[in-house]
Design goal:
There is one protein chain. This protein is an alpha/beta fold and 249 residues long. The protein has a single domain (5-246), classed as TIM Barrel, CATH 3.20.20. The protein has helices spanning 16-30, 47-54, 80-86, 96-101, 106-118, 131-135, 139-151, 178-196, 198-203, 214-221, 238-246; strands at residues 5-9, 37-41, 60-63, 90-93, 122-127, 161-164, 205-209, 228-231. The chain has an 8-stranded parallel beta barrel with strand order 1-2-3-4-5-6-7-8, surrounded by 6 helices. Helix 1 packs parallel to helix 2, helix 5 (106-118) packs across helix 7 (139-151) and helix 10 packs parallel to helix 11 (238-246). The longest helix is centred in the C-terminal third of the chain and has 19 residues, at 178-196. The radius of gyration is 17 Å and the shape is globular. Bound molecules: 2-phosphoglycolic acid (PGA). 2-phosphoglycolic acid binds next to strand 8.
């Protein structure tokens, strides 16, 4: 049995005071959650504040990205150790917005995955096709390449979580149907099975992301290979985030 995981990606929203308020509201409803792992991913500047607010709860914190070098002259970048010491146990890697706006490649994703794992962080690696790719019928090729190249030669996936986020469903209000999502999740689990073996395939969590809301979460979670959610917009309100978490109970 895979324990569900609900992760909130706050993207470039919330200043530290707003993040503290949101974290406090979430703590009130999810601070003692036992049925799912709950992770929130605030912007870098709010990580310490949110960590202080969530201290003593079961909720954990993730960053939205990192840079693969340990330290050095890399103006503007943040290392795995820096986010870990600020209070993160998790990190999102390869989000489609980073791929689209910041030229993130699968090779970058792989380097970031390695850096995260060696620093003791748990990476959530994102994969997903654009609408154009789906329409052309190449979804499986795209997803397979992103997964294989992004996870590369990692021989142990025990720290890794995958998030399937169809680009056309992110922030658009257009969710993949439970059937569409399940099809890709099953495909991903099969690739893991072939490359990393049965126990990795059985234990790895594959999250769905893309316009997840309290209204659609139950039907999505009902599918065998959907183990939780990576939530954007609906994670910016404690109430909707909590209701999504409730739906996997
Ligand atoms: P959304 O974003 O829930 O706002 O569609 C999901 C994500 O980008 O992780």
């Amino acid at each position: 049995m895979r324990k569900p995981l609900i992760a909130g990606n706050w993207k470039m929203f919330t200043t530290p005071p707003k993040a503290a308020k949101l974290a406090d509201e979430m703590k009130a409803v999810l601070g003692g959650c036992r049925w799912a792992d709950i992770v929130v991913c605030p912007p870098y500047t709010s990580i310490s504040t949110v960590a202080a607010s969530l201290k003593g709860t079961v909720m954990e914190i993730g960053a939205q990205d990192l840079f693969w070098e340990k330290e050095g002259a890399y103006t503007g970048e943040i290392s795995a150790e820096m986010i870990r010491e600020a209070g993160c146990a998790w990190v999102i890697i390869g989000h489609s917005e980073r791929r689209a706006y910041f030229n993130e490649t699968d090779e970058n994703v792989y380097k970031k995955m390695r850096a995260a794992i060696s620093a003791g962080l748990k990476p959530i690696v994102c994969v997903g096709e654009t609408l154009d790719q789906r329409d052309k019928g190449v979804t499986e090729n795209i997803i397979e390449n992103q997964l294989i190249d992004g996870l590369g030669s990692l021989d142990n996936l025990s720290a890794v979580t995958i998030a399937y986020e169809p680009v056309w469903a992110i922030g658009t209000g257009r969710t993949a149907t439970p059937e569409q999502a399940q099809e890709v999740h099953k495909f991903l689990r099969n690739i893991i099975f072939k490359k990393w073996g049965g126990s990795s395939a059985e234990s790895i969590r594959i999250l769905y992301g893309g316009s997840v809301k309290p209204e659609n979460a139950i039907d999505l979670y009902d599918k065998d290979d959907i183990d939780g959610f990576l939530v954007g917009g609906a994670s910016l309100k404690a109430d909707s985030f909590a209701r999504i978490a409730e739906s996997v109970k």
